[in-house]
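User: I'm new to structure prediction. If I give you an amino acid sequence, what do you actually give back? Let's try with this one:
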Amino acid sequence: MRNVDGRELKQASYAQLKSIAEELREEIFRTVSVCGGHLSSNLGTVELTMALHRVFDFPRDKIVFDVGHQCYSHKLLSGRAEAFHTLRREGGISGFPKREESEYDCYGTGHAGTAISAALGIAKARDLLGEDYEVIALVGDGSFQNGLIYEALGSIKELKTPILIVLNDNGLSISPTHGGMHDALERMKEGSSEDIRLIERFGVTYTGPVNGNSFEELIPALETAKNTLKEGKCVLLHAVTRKGLGYPFTEMRPSETHGVSPAPVKSEYATAIGEELCRLAERDSRIAVVTAAMTDSLGLRPFFERFPTRAFDVGICEEHASVLAAGLAAAGMRPFYAVYSTFLQRSFDEIVHDVCLQKLPVTFLVDRGGLTGEDGETHQGVFDFSYLSPIPNLAVATPKNIAELRKMVEKSLDWGVPLAIRYPRAGNEGCADEVEFGKFEVLHSTMSDIIMLAAGERCLAIAERVLGMAKRRGMDFTLVNARFVKPLDGEFLANCPAKHVITLEDNVLAGGFGDAVARFLRGSGKEVRAFGYSDVFIPHGPADSLRRKYGLSEEEIFACVEEIYARG
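Assistant: Good question. You get back a string of structure tokens that encode the predicted 3D arrangement of the chain. For your 568 residues, that looks like this:
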């Protein structure tokens, strides 16, 4: 696609703007079809993004995207059209705003709820430094359920600095939006003065609703908002958009086309989770499910349909979801809280104080554990072993395949402890024996002086390939499914005769599985070599390429085995 910028948009007629909008849509659809990415959210915000580029002067003015997955039009309009075909590819442009990528990306984002806080901080810095520019926070209605938004709104009167909040309201996050604020936004669309007064009590001037896919409505509304900013007032512009606009399939199925994979994936763990929870809930009325706006992507739709009174989608409120689950457990239920690894990070304090301190039997189903690939730094699930393992009373398990996941979910009802079961997006169904709490599983036993402990399906696949390489060279080692990162199988480790222990984990090395094994074996005379990810934020790219580059290379692991053999 040719490069289009704000100067061209400022001079274009409405008819020309509509033509450019179609160019942007076609480019987004074509690129995402090849590279994968967020489709329906970007198709719905084309006119809104173009109108902002026409009325404001980026990069002098600053725009902060909430979440950021709807920034594709912004990238196309800010000098990155020629590179757009590299979207989410290794070495290419990111699927999210990224400060290192362009001066137009003033703030990096990837999680919900942060835009208003960041915009206020940028605006306050502008005031203190005596500079002159406008600051815009573009926030989706899904993010408007997040508690951090209200912490930010609550400080607007105190900070006394003007920003424009553009509320992109399409009624959806990934799944349909729920909650009291969603209902209030629906009433605002109908002109409810009571709800408008409520939002204005935070210190913003409400304007709208306007059709967020109509230049004729958007541009005058943004120009008026800009003039109000000059008066020193904060403005909230309520723009109603249609997610997936421009293509019938994406308009009719916006949740399914929120995120698009460039190629079919293997069997999904999420599908198995939905099936297993439904099966268990049929016979156990204590089972409940909690999620934070991720019903479909986490495989929970069947449970929500069959057991609606025991299913809770709280919106993008991960901390609230954790405490809700704790409350359910405290009163006798057995809640399962399903969440992506990267989003569970937001609940750390609640996991510590509300779940684990009280020893409540909440099971966290931690999806997208390990490298997630193309979504990049903000979505790589490579910290969970490290931030979960230090918490007292919490067990951390990672299955070798989908069959073992099913057994862990069922057995968690008997274990009755705070538990995190961590798994990748996709894998193999496989087969599994019974799972005993806190016990490893030996998959291949030899008299070798080397033992390899692999945590999770991805690492076991790597270990099996290394074992094949070793056997072809006349070498061997014992291979273990380290399905419990915590508690470690202390009896097994204490009685293991091998002098050389190699650990593999789809996690950062600092504070992870290898660290725990090394601490346990300290003073035993055994040598521990840990393989995992280095101390960096891992960028976007194919997961297989990234794991090799950042610490989980079969060649490096095999070289370690070879070097031990060479030493005798």
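You can read the tokens as a compact description of the fold. Here is one thing that stands out. The longest strand covers residues 500-508.
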